[in-house]
Amino acid sequence: MRVRRTSRRLADGREIIYFDDTPDAPARTAQDTRPLGERAAAGEIRYDALVGDWVAVAGHRSDRTFLPPKDECPLCPTGTGSVPSEVPERAYDVVVFENRFPSYAPVSSFHSDGHTDELHLSRPALGRCEVVCFTSDHESTFAALSASRARTVIDAWADRTTELGALPEVEQVFCFENRGQEIGVTLHHPHGQIYAYPYVPQRSADLLQRAREHYDRTGRLLGADILAAELHTKERIVVDTEHWTAYVPFAARWPVEVHLAPRRDVPDLPSLTDEERDDLAQVYLDLLGRLDRYYVGKDDTPIRMPYIAGWHQAPAKQGRDVSRLHLQVMSVLRSPKKLKYLAGSESGVGGWVNDIPPERVAARLREVAR
Ligand SMILES: [Zn+2]
Q1: Which of the two residues, 235 and 370, has the higher pLDDT score?
Q2: Separation of 303 CA from ligand 1 center, angstroms?
Q3: Which residue has the higher pLDDT, 128 or 337?
Q4: Which of 220, 239, 248, 358 is most buried, most CB within 10 Å of its CB?
Q5: Strands 128-133 and 172-179, how do they pair?
Q6: Residue 100 CB neighbour total at 10 angstroms
Q7: Parallel/antiparallel/unpaired status of strands 44-48 and 53-57
Q8: Which tens digits make up the pLDDT trace of 1-32?
């Protein structure tokens, strides 16, 4: 086994899982001694009858930790700062734990109090929200990880997809990273999140419906056909390896947007082979490196690209036959100093306007290859 997995409990009963790839890493036995009290319960999800989608309403989340000083970072190992953190161990490689301020949790404070008519449907926000710390190094970034450590993160994502997807209440597992204050990050420590939703969120549902329609009409996977078309025209291809292809989508919505898809038809991260995971670690690090060289400031200093990176995989309980795994990386940075805001057209009616042709983005991402 290249990764050793250790599951423990935090003081309030939340699960913490260590994924260690360092040979002879010490056993993870440290106790969480903080007086945490009871774990936070999730709130409710409410059905938006106007558009047919659910919204999680979680009042307690407004009290969550916001950009603490490094000394009080809850994601650094305990013992490195002035207060005990969320990770009781003195060191770790990759660690995953249940979010202390979850939108979705195994327990909910919600009790139905009569809001049961079809215009006011609500349900407990059951599910799980997890934090993934990519490294114990507070100052690092995903792009600075070694390929071996990136591979451990991929294994952690796959592990969590399998385990969370098997929970009876979970319909969709989404692994993602928000990077940069421009995206609304509330902790600087390099980390991502995993949401296990009790319903199929709207974009996931849209992807599934389109994939199903295409399959019914042609007998082929939509994701595979799109990849083949991009490989044929080549102009939006960014990088192409033995197992993975990165391309800027034909109808990109964001000023910088890249999709990364496997060559083989797979529905989700757990389905990837060892070789595909090793190759993914390399190609994803390559891609993130290019994003950080995409814009340069004065004196050619590179500008760290704020981004959202999220894995689209088959829903947990349906659609595995037509879904095809892909990563979507997107940024709101439309020039070295200007952000794209999701303003009237996008936020109001979902009418996207992109000022930057996707072909130009692909050319720039090829130009900044190492
Ligand atoms: Zn930290």
Answers
A1: 235
A2: 22
A3: 128
A4: 248
A5: unpaired
A6: 18
A7: antiparallel
A8: 789 999 999 999 999 999 999 999 999 999 99
Do residues 53 and 38 lie in contact, with contact meaning Cβ atoms separated by under 8 Å? no
Whether 191 sits among the annotated catalytic residues: the reply is: yes
* Catalytic hit among 60, 115, 138, 191: 191
The predicted-structure confidence for 179-192, as pLDDT tens digits, reads as follows: 987 777 778 999 99
- Determine whether domain 203-367 maps to CATH 3.30.1300.30: no
Q: Which residue has the tokens 């710390």?
A: 133
Distance 339 CA to ligand 1 centre (A): 27
Please, where are the H alpha helices in the chain? 147-165, 202-218, 222-233, 274-294, 358-367
- Placement of tokens 């042709």 in the chain: 357
DSSP 347: I
CATH T-level assignment (fold) for domain 4-199 = HIT family, subunit A (3.30.428)
CATH 3.30.428.10, the chain: domain bounds: 4-199, 203-367
**Phi/psi of residue 303, each to 5°?**
-110, 120
| Long-range CB contact pairs, 170-173, < 8 A, 24+ | 170/127, 170/128, 170/196, 170/197, 170/198, 170/316, 171/197, 171/198, 171/199, 171/200, 171/315, 171/316, 171/317, 172/196, 172/197, 172/199, 172/200, 172/201, 172/204, 172/315, 172/316, 173/197, 173/313, 173/316
Tokens of 226: 């799109």
CB-based neighbours (< 5 A) of ligand 1, an ion: 73, 75-76, 138, 189
